Amino acid sequence: xxxxxxxxxxxxxxxxLLGGMLISLALSILSFAGGMVLGLAFAIIRxxxxxxxxxxxxxxxxxxxxxxxxxxxxxxxxxLPDFGVLFSPFAAVLIGMTLxxxxxxxxxxxxxxxxxxxEELDAAATLNMNRLQTLRHVVLPHLFRVTMPALxxxxxxxxxxxxxxxxFGVEELTGRAFNxxxxxxxxxxxxxxxxxxxxxxxxxxxxxxxxxxxxxxxARVPVL
Amino acid sequence: xxxxxxxxxxxxxxxxxxILLAKAALTTLALSAVGCVVGLFCxxxxxxxxxxxxPALWPLKAFAFLYVEIMRRVPFLITLMTxxxxxxxxxxxxxxxxxxxxxxxxxxxxFVAEIVRSGLQAVRPSQLEAAAVMNFSAWxxxxxxxxxxxxxxxxxxxxxxxxLFIKDTALASQAGVLELTQxxxxxxxxxxxxxxxxxxxxxxxxxxxxxxARLGVVLEKRLGAARHSRPGRPV
Lengths: 224, 235
What we know:
The complex is a heterodimer of chains A (about 220) and B (about 240).
Chain A: H1 14-48, H2 51-65, H3 69-79, H4 89-114, H5 118-126, H6 131-161, H7 173-184, H8 187-216
Helix pairs in contact in A: 1-2, 1-4, 1-6, 1-7, 2-4, 3-4, 4-6, 5-6, 6-8, 7-8
Chain B: H1 2-12, H2 15-51, H3 58-71, H4 76-90, H5 96-121, H6 125-133, H7 138-168, H8 180-189, H9 194-228
Helix pairs in contact in B: 2-3, 2-5, 2-7, 2-8, 3-5, 4-5, 5-7, 6-7, 7-9, 8-9
């Protein structure tokens, strides 16, 4: 064991790695946004849609939360070309992550929907709000407030999950780490540096999300 | 194209391929199970260190805190690659399976430690005060009072984490461990259509994970019921 760590050798690559982190973040933000849109629609269907649609959503959630995201992307990236459907690596990973996120986010958002008090809905009905107004002014504010911690957590997990994009050749943070590794062979230094970048960035994101939550869901005292 | 793929199915499920897939499925389960069992043990140790009130233990407490906070923010793939390439660079000759076991244990220790901590902290302080009043030692109050009340709270989320982690171990294929995803890659290299083998493996994962997930829900209900139906006054 005569191994000397040389972090100096990979210091020049730091801007390259941080650029990769931006791609990772872009991937996680896009797939989270897509997953939220799908997940919200699915949660509403599951909560009050017709029995068949609700059953389909349940099947979707069970399937996507019980299979690995990696293999889902394998099917999209390597499997679909058998049927003439070709995606770029980035698109395949983005689609896979979005579909996967939709499964988990549906569960989180549905738990939030169920927690809306019946009295709140009654009050909305008394005010003669239609369904869209009830959703916009009563259900959604409540939903996002109660699910905020779980959503933040899911977003952090998804940010970590973007590292598997490297397997399909997307040059995000992990992909760039693989690139540097194959040219410098300073494996321990590179992967611990990359781990540190993930830790620092997700930590900052956690703090920002917590601050955002405090600002967005602050107690609003009506000014009379 | 669909006709071609359907025609491959009988060829895919020959006895040797089925044995390959069965072994791979066992490895997949073992990776997650070993990770969680080691995680439960090490995680409990970390948590006990973190919750102890002895001033002399502060370096251990700081280590437990940093370990949990940092390791939960490192992607599993990065941990795996650090150990995989690190062992090579340092000249250790470990099998990919051993490296995968170490990586799963290291990661799940952090996650399980957090579950154990929330479980132990959910025990009401009045229970521990009662133990102190009865002159229980620290060990007695932990073993006889705290743990029996905490484990029904700890077990369901740990089991849920075990089921969740089964899916994460798919990444071990990147280190060359022969688990389900790697088996699919091998079969694909052997000439079977990618769509067929990956879809088949996807279904195998589902067949493993879904019943376990349902079992976890049943477990949670049973233990929850046992906890709530206990007779006695609220304390």
